[in-house]
UniProtKB/TrEMBL annotation:
Key words of the record: Hydrolase, Lipid degradation, Lipid metabolism, Transducer
Protein name: Phosphoinositide phospholipase C
PANTHER family (UniProt xref): 1-PHOSPHATIDYLINOSITOL 4,5-BISPHOSPHATE PHOSPHODIESTERASE BETA-4 (PTHR10336:SF36), PHOSPHOINOSITIDE-SPECIFIC PHOSPHOLIPASE C FAMILY PROTEIN (PTHR10336)
One GO BP annotation of this record: phosphatidylinositol-mediated signaling
Feature: compositional bias, Low complexity: 464-481
């Protein structure tokens, strides 16, 4: 009898009790309801199963978060469940069919809870480890064998007959005739018993997964080195093909690792890399296509915070539609656990304390205090660097003071504060290192807004007088639709404001409601709590009055631009925007009228140095994927140092414009996943897939004329220009794409050997702001349908040579066993 996965020597500490595999009774909790259900764990196939009104499967790799015991209190209180449930409560947050789902279970006893808790945490850790790139070959192989063995052994008799094997191969998308498959089965059935035990199954699987594409590469490398693959051949391969920057000593260590583990015969020389060792190396972390994602925090974190891109979320409180979605703490927890460093909240008056929701919509409300508690708990789990809380405050004075009370109580010394009077002048923004473990509140300071409006009015009046114009030109400004305070101020009388600027307290009284607005029918100015300004230190929200050199902003001033507003600046004044972003933070947010919460492509704005590009994390589209890929860099700190061209104006690197070709050979794919239904179950009934691969370069708008030679379009390149946002479409950058032909009836090991060449231009050598996306699709599939697999990576971080790309689903969960094998090169246009 084959030992289960949990008893393997590799993971021998992961013991799954028989009781959990057979099933225990749990209370399934929903809002206002509870129901007893039978729940069990299948450790081999990596699933949680329970029977409610229907059979439900939760694949462990689809789990995004486990919460246990007191960490589930928010839901226990929300469901009005008894307090003693808390110590036995398990919350599982997972994705099925592109949608976040939440499963709440309460164990009958504390002992059963402990068993479930330990089992889930261990199995979850194993799967998450396998879903963080490639590597762990032995464990990955064992998990594969156990998963497909268990899935094929429907009778549970610990052997597989031919029908079992044929059914498994159908599930695997294997392209073989019954006769070919029968031949392999017979060869594996060495005892001629008509079935395979687990050891024979392992041998069968090894033959089934044979890689002729790698065998061909290995044979070629041996041929060019006198018929053997020794250390000299390996070093040559790494330097010439893989363009490795490692030292000879480091390469020697890698060579020794894979020769030591790959010897299949006692007579085989230990200084020869076998085919098995070479194959294992090619799918290892040492040969990762995106090596930077495996590195800890390595960038210099001591530069001013304006020198970094900051992982940012938009409408963080929403987990669905902008008009009718649910406001919850989940959005904050989800974002923070993925290293998001800028979260948003729209704060309104509540019955007792302020609440957060999307104003003028049907979205639900959540107490500000609950959100702050969640932020405090999860803020620095994934990254130690500062969290920016971007708030739109719509409260009256009394609840503005409550905002201060709540934040200082919950965040304590971690929230940055400054005295109300006698503040020292800020000459330069602090660094992420200096702000470690801190919260920064960003909100509009109406007093500062008034100062800037008065100064702007004075400039406009001077220009009008100079040109003898009857009416001054409209200020060049962009911000949130709700941020219209400057216009209100101007309407209420510029002269009064000029007089008030000299006397801070007098002006402050005016803005806090101490003086009544003069004139009948005038719009009442918004009121602001004087205490609130103590929390606005390095991120003081102001309105944008343009980026003309005549407009002076303090280093701590941050304004917000809608995507279309910044698009206009990119076309008209990108140099000044880049210059402004050397010393100031700028926030970009999605067009508000696009209520389906789709995302712009953020690298379009990163290329101008904009740091805080807010993304709807509840929408899994291209903008989301680019954002997540960018912040896999630098140890997932949530801060990525901007390219040198955007940090060092004295070097004038932005004047360097170059043209290149991205050469990519799509060699093969390995075990493409089957699509799943709405319950998370694989769809087996449909025919074996006919896959093709589309490769796209997403390029910022850093020149008016893209590099697109006629040879590329003749060869089949598809070019899409950049676009601005509409009520239904997003702002996009340029795209150049190619696609391969489809391979018929093979989703297990399709081979293309298709050479593609994608042209691109670059400014300042900022290749890390160009993103490459590989999408594997089924022939005839609509672009709106979920693809078979996706891989996205910054071009400047993509390693050259022969690489395996781990494939993900549309929500960026990695498929455990699916890869795309490619050869990569970048060359200059000379």
């Amino acid at each position: 009898m084959t030992p289960p996965l949990a008893d393997s020597p590799i993971i021998k500490d992961t013991m799954i009790p028989d009781a959990l595999q057979k099933g225990t009774t749990m209370l399934k909790m929903t809002d206002g309801k509870k129901k007893a259900v039978a729940c069990r764990i299948d450790p081999d196939e990596g699933r949680i199963l329970y029977k409610s009104s229907k059979d439900v499967t939760v694949p462990i790799e689809s789990i995004k978060e486990l919460r246990l015991g007191k960490d589930t209190r928010y839901y226990r209180l929300q469901f009005k469940a008894p307090e003693d449930y808390e110590e036995r409560w398990i919350t599982i947050i997972y994705i099925v069919d592109g949608t976040y789902k939440t499963l709440h279970l309460v164990a009958e006893t504390r002992d059963v809870f402990q068993q479930w808790s330990l089992a889930l945490q261990k199995l979850y850790a194993i799967r998450q480890g396998l879903m963080s790139g490639l590597g762990d070959f032995e464990l990955r192989q064992l998990v594969w064998e156990r998963q497909y063995w268990k899935g094929a052994d429907e009778e549970g008799d610990q052997v597989l007959d031919f029908d079992d094997v044929e059914r498994m191969c159908k599930r695997l998308n294997v392209s073989m005739t019954t006769a070919e498959l029968k031949k392999l089965f017979t060869e594996a059935d060495t005892l001629k018993r008509g079935h395979l035990d687990f050891t024979q199954f392992q041998k069968f699987a090894k033959v089934l997964k044979r890689r002729p594409d790698i065998e061909s590469i290995y044979a070629k490398l041996c041929t060019t080195n006198g018929g053997k693959f020794d250390k000299a051949a390996f070093l040559k391969f790494m330097k010439e093909y893989q363009k490795s920057q490692l030292t000879d000593s480091e390469l020697n260590d890698i060579f020794n690792k894979y020769t030591g583990s790959s010897s299949t015969s006692p007579n085989e020389p230990s200084d020869i890399l076998s085919l098995e060792g070479f194959s294992t190396f090619l799918v290892s972390k040492e040969n990762s296509a995106f090596s930077e994602q495996d590195r800890p925090i390595w960038q210099d974190m001591s530069a001013p915070i304006s020198d970094y891109y900051i992982s940012s979320s938009h409408n963080t409180y929403l987990v669905g539609h902008q008009l009718v979605g649910v406001s919850t703490i989940e959005g904050y927890i989800r974002a923070l656990l993925h290293s998001c460093r800028s979260v948003e909240m729209d704060i309104y008056d509540g019955d007792v304390e302020p609440v957060v929701y999307h104003g003028k919509t049907l979205t639900s409300k959540v107490p500000l205090r609950d959100i702050c508690i969640a932020i405090a708990k999860y803020a620095f789990v994934a990254s130690p660097y500062p969290v920016l809380i971007s708030a739109e405050i719509h409260c009256g004075l009394a609840q503005q003071d409550k905002i201060v009370d709540i934040m200082t109580e919950v965040f304590a010394d971690a929230i940055v504060q400054a005295p109300l009077e006698g503040r020292p002048q800020i000459k330069q923004l602090p660094s992420p290192e200096e702000l470690k473990g801190k919260f920064l509140l960003k909100a509009k300071n109406l007093y500062v807004t008034a100062q800037l409006a008065a100064a702007q009015a004075e400039r406009l009046a001077a220009k009008a007088a100079e040109s003898k114009s009857a009416a001054p030109p409209t200020p060049s400004s962009s911000s949130e639709s709700s941020e219209n305070d400057a216009e209100v101020i101007l309407k209420e009388g510029v002269a009064d404001l000029k007089e008030g600027v000299a006397d801070l307290k007098k002006t402050w009284k005016k803005f806090s409601g101490g003086e009544e607005a003069k004139g009948k029918g005038e719009k009442q100015k918004p009121k602001m709590s004087f205490r609130l300004t103590s929390l606005l230190v390095y991120t003081v929200g102001v309105k944008c009055h343009g980026i003309d050199p005549d407009v002076q902003y303090a280093p701590e001033h941050i304004f917000s631009l809608s995507e279309n507003s910044v698009n206009r600046l990119l076309k008209a004044n990108i140099r000044d925007l880049v210059k402004h972003n050397h010393t100031h933070l700028v926030r970009i947010y999605p067009k508000g009228t696009r209520v389906n919460s789709t995302n712009y492509e953020p690298h379009r704005y990163w290329a101008a140095g904009c740091q805080v590009t807010a993304i709807n994390w509840q929408t899994f589209d291209l903008g989301y994927r680019i954002n997540q890929t960018m912040f896999q860099r630098n140890g997932r700190a949530g801060y990525v140092l901007k390219p040198e061209a955007l940090r060092c104006p004295e070097k004038d690197l932005l004047s360097k414009r170059t043209q290149h070709f991205f050469d990519i050979t799509i060699i093969s794919a390995q075990q493409l996943p089957r699509l799943r239904d709405s319950r998370g179950e694989e769809i087996i009934e449909k025919s074996i897939v006919d896959p093709y691969v589309e490769v796209s370069l997403h390029i910022p708008d850093w020149s008016h004329s893209p590099f697109l030679p006629e040879s590329a379009t003749t060869a089949g390149a598809k070019y899409s220009p950049s676009t601005d946002a509409t009520t239904t479409t997003v702002s996009s950058a340029r795209t150049v794409s190619f696609r391969t032909p489809a391979v018929k009836d093979n989703g297990f090991n399709p081979v293309w050997q298709e050479e593609l060449c994608l042209p691109f231009d670059c400014v300042g050598d900022m290749k890390e702001l160009i993103f490459v996306e590989f999408i594997v699709r089924q022939q005839g599939q609509s672009e709106d349908d979920e693809p078979l697999g996706i891989y996205c990576v910054p071009l400047g971080c993509l390693e050259k040579g022969f690489r395996h790309l781990p494939l993900h689903d549309a929500q960026l969960s990695q498929h455990l066993f699916s890869t795309l094998f490619v050869e990569i090169n970048v060359r200059d246009n000379v």
